[in-house]
Amino acid sequence: MTSSSSIKYVRDYNRIEKLVFSKLFWLIFVSLAFGYPLVRSMLRELPPAPAPLYKVPEFELINEFGKTFGSKNLEGKAYLASFVFTSCPTTCPGQMERLQKVQKRMRGLGTNVAIVTFTVDPEYDTPKVLHKFARKYQSNPFIWSFLTTKDWDQMNKLVVKGFKVPMGSGKEKWTGQVNGEEVTMMDIVHSERLVLVDQKGFVRNYYSNNKDAINKLMIDVGLLANRPAK
């Protein structure tokens, strides 16, 4: 007679249970769970960058260090062009502060990108004045350049006919409050828009200075920086 304590029950697992307890199953499951999103992101096509509009003519100006700087220095780089003048009492300070933030956001793109600020008042904004202005906004000279010229007509032609943004020839009085006191200063008509130029010197798009436009600009800069210009 067999003792009941010696009888062992052996459970017959069904296919699903056998699969769950299989090391191979979990290896495949983990590989698919984590590998699929990675593969999908690698295969996903990036959206297209803005189409080329027209080419900026070649130029050679003077940077804040008193050295020649122009389109040849920017070959192979996507760059952002802006237009200001150092004595601007109205829109320029805000624009420069936004460009400071753009410079920080562009750090991860290395030397594939640049910022170029053109003065619309080259008669006053000498290299020495621009150098002091650049330091005020903590510009990185390896990324951000400030350009002027001794020839006003040269700058006007480049800004108006090259980048196709306005540049006024005269100054107009501006009256406002500074530190609680009313002061009168001079302002120059110029564009507040930022211009994105690709590695071959073609204008790709124009951007205003609001938050949404800057975010769109950063996406487009990244797209250009990570693919060769055609």
Descriptive notes:
- By secondary structure, the chain is of the alpha+beta class.
- The chain folds into two domains: 12-44, no CATH class; 54-225, Glutaredoxin (3-Layer(aba) Sandwich), CATH 3.40.30.10.
- Helix content is 33%, strand content 26%.
- The protein is built from six helices and ten strands.
- It has helices at 15-20, 23-43, 92-105, 127-136, 152-162, 211-225; strands at residues 54-55, 60-63, 68-70, 78-84, 113-119, 144-148, 167-178, 181-190, 194-197, 202-207.
- It has an eight-stranded mixed sheet with strand order 1-10-9-4-5-6-2-3, with helices on both faces. The chain has a two-stranded antiparallel ribbon with strand order 7-8.
- A hairpin with a 4-residue loop joins strand 9 and strand 10.
- The longest helix has 21 residues, at 23-43.
- The mean pLDDT is 80.
Q: How does the overall form come out from the CA principal axes? A: elongated
Question: In the CATH scheme, what's the topology name of the largest domain?
Answer: Glutaredoxin
Strand pairing plus helix content: what structural class? alpha+beta
Number of strands: 10
The level 1 CATH classification of the largest domain is Alpha Beta
Could you describe the largest sheet, including whether it forms a barrel? 8 strands, mixed
Look at the structure and name the CATH superfamily of the largest domain. Answer: Glutaredoxin
> Oligomeric state of the chains?
single chain
Query: What's the CATH architecture of the largest domain?
Result: 3-Layer(aba) Sandwich
First-last Cα distance = 90 Å
What would you report as the Rg, rounded to the nearest angstrom?
A: 29 Å
Q: Give the fraction of residues assigned to helices.
A: 25-40%
Could you spell the SSE succession in H and E letters?
A: HHEEEEHEHEHEEEEH
Mean pLDDT over the full residue set: 80
Number of domains: 2
Number of H/I helices? 6
Q: Could you name the ranges where pLDDT drops below 50 across 5 or more consecutive residues?
A: none
